[in-house]
């Protein structure tokens, strides 16, 4: 194999990754709607990437459950229903209980302290009446804590699976469960209970608090 072949192979790979990022960005921006039927050429127009990249992207989207082929109708974007909610939160529960226990055993004191500081800062802003970036910042703090716990496993397969599931959770939240003012403080307090158990270096307690937090989120989603 010549030295130039990996370089030629690398460019299509980068193109597929950019097309994937474009698809997910538009999905979260609701430019591509859950449940919508789309054609390959419509995806070309929506994402701005060529037909070849879209054709190579589709198997990944199907494997991740973000689209499915419906006989005689075409491709349908994943839609939010009770089945998606149950499956997404159950998968999170399986992953994050074990990850939280492992994180409790090996995370540094500095990492844990940083998590606490971020959450307490969000609560102080909320209690002070909030501001225009509070919701977005709170969602980032929420995501970063879960990602840090998962990524601490140092397992690329688990990290990738988690991010796909988190994408589905964000689709669910676009309806009625996005972190809004009335649930922001309770969500942050759920997180602080997890952090407190991690600080005590009690893996079972930390895993139990994470389970309670995920179940609370699932209950909110199911109620809508």
UniProtKB/TrEMBL annotation:
InterPro entries, sorted: GntR_C, TF_FadR/GntR_C, Tscrpt_reg_HTH_GntR, WH-like_DNA-bd_sf, WH_DNA-bd_sf
Keywords recorded for this protein, A-Z: DNA-binding, Transcription, Transcription regulation
Pfam families noted in UniProt: FCD, GntR
SUPFAM superfamilies, per database record: GntR ligand-binding domain-like, Winged helix' DNA-binding domain
Gene3D superfamilies cross-referenced by the UniProt entry: GntR ligand-binding domain-like, Winged helix-like DNA-binding domain superfamily/Winged helix DNA-binding domain
The keyword Glycoprotein appears for this protein: no
Keyword Transcription attached: yes
HTH gntR-type domain ranges (all copies): 13-80
Protein name: GntR family transcriptional regulator
Source lineage: Bacteria, Pseudomonadati, Pseudomonadota, Alphaproteobacteria, Hyphomicrobiales
């Amino acid at each position: 194999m010549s030295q130039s072949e990996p370089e030629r192979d690398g460019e299509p790979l980068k193109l597929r990754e950019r097309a994937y990022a474009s698809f997910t960005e538009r999905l979260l921006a609701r430019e591509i709607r859950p449940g919508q039927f789309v054609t390959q050429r419509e995806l070309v127009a929506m994402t701005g990437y060529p037909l070849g990249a879209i054709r190579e992207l589709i198997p990944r989207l199907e494997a991740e459950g973000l689209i499915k082929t419906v006989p005689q109708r075409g491709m349908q974007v994943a839609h939010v229903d009770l089945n998606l909610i149950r499956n997404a939160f159950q998968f999170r529960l399986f992953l994050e209980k074990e990850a939280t226990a492992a994180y409790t055993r090996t995370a540094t004191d500095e990492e844990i302290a940083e998590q606490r500081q971020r959450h307490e800062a969000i609560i102080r802003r909320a209690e002070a009446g909030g501001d225009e970036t509070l919701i977005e910042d709170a969602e980032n703090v929420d995501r970063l804590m879960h990602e840090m716990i998962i990524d601490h496993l140092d397992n690329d397969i688990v990290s990738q699976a988690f991010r796909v599931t988190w994408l589905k959770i964000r689709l669910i939240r676009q309806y009625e469960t996005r972190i809004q003012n009335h649930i922001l403080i309770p969500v942050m307090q759920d997180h602080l209970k997890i952090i407190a158990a991690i600080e005590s270096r009690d893996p079972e307690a930390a895993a139990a608090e994470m389970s309670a937090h995920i179940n609370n989120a699932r209950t909110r989603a199911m109620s809508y």
